[in-house]
């Protein structure tokens, strides 16, 4: 039964809107009138144009990562319980609290009832369901294990969100310290230093070199702050424009992988995403070449993605997956060894899951280690800058005191 979006008013003149099932738009209006509502707008839930949908998304109406994980988990539970897909989508439509999610589920259900697969229905909403999500759903439908794939996909989304949240929280404190330090230094240079040092400049006393340098820097900050701001904006724009080009981005990504500290973080984060996605795809029965291609699309580093492309060529030529990944010299040896063990025992999926879990824990440990180093370094750097400013202010006072004595 198709789903219809409606907007109506009740006897008290209060506006109501939602989604209901009916044979036709006329039947939907009749249903609304039987409930004491006066229908104003009744339209199929999937009838909104792409422009209208993009306009709503531009206003922030889209699925959050948390909502995506919850919907995936609920749909997986309903399908594993034996509920047909259209009825499972109807349940999600009815129990959704947010209007946008209710309309989204109703639109997907309308597409499914129209004869489309779930993956094709999700393809109409690319901002809510990215390409890798749709590829996993299509693999689940093709193998008849949609419930299992959605359950593993929900696990993957939840673990990815948890890992991302831990990394963000770990770097939150150093970021706050950096912003506060920058604000304090700017305040000292633009207000405190001129107020104190100008007193000694009016006495025509020979000022120390450090004080002269600090006065020049203070004057530059006060009079040319707008030029500094424009310069930062221009530099950021040029860097982003350069990194949009394929060759510079590839060179930058290769450098990142070899950079101290940050290189291991980038390598570990992409390894977790690659191993998790590949594990879900192999569990769903997707052929290894197609699974490798889909898993490569989840990598944010183009250099690692290029290495996966090389590995795909080797696997197509008959090389084992472990040897193909080992030849790239990009992924951690633990991942390669676990895949080799899985190939020997015939259970690559379990080894991929173990590799993803182990690398996630290692990534979390490295993140905490890096932030534990950054915090004292930032405090020392801030203290050093403030010390230099204080010395620039105090040196004229000390020299004047020596002259008086």
From TrEMBL:
Subcellular location(s) of the protein: Cell inner membrane
Main location: membrane
One GO process term, biological-process aspect: protein secretion by the type II secretion system
Cross-referenced Pfam families: T2SSF (PF00482)
Annotated TM spans: 167-192, 212-239, 373-398
Record flagged with keyword Ribosomal protein: no
Matching Gene3D superfamilies: Type II secretion system (T2SS), domain F (1.20.81.30)
Taxonomy, superkingdom: Bacteria
GO CC terms of this entry: plasma membrane; type II protein secretion system complex
Keywords from the named record: Cell inner membrane, Cell membrane, Membrane, Transmembrane, Transmembrane helix
Membrane topology: Multi-pass membrane protein
NCBIfam families given in the database record: GspF
Protein name: Type II secretion system inner membrane protein GspF
Naturally occurring in which organism (per UniProt): Paraburkholderia sprentiae WSM5005
Encoding gene, per UniProt annotation: gspF
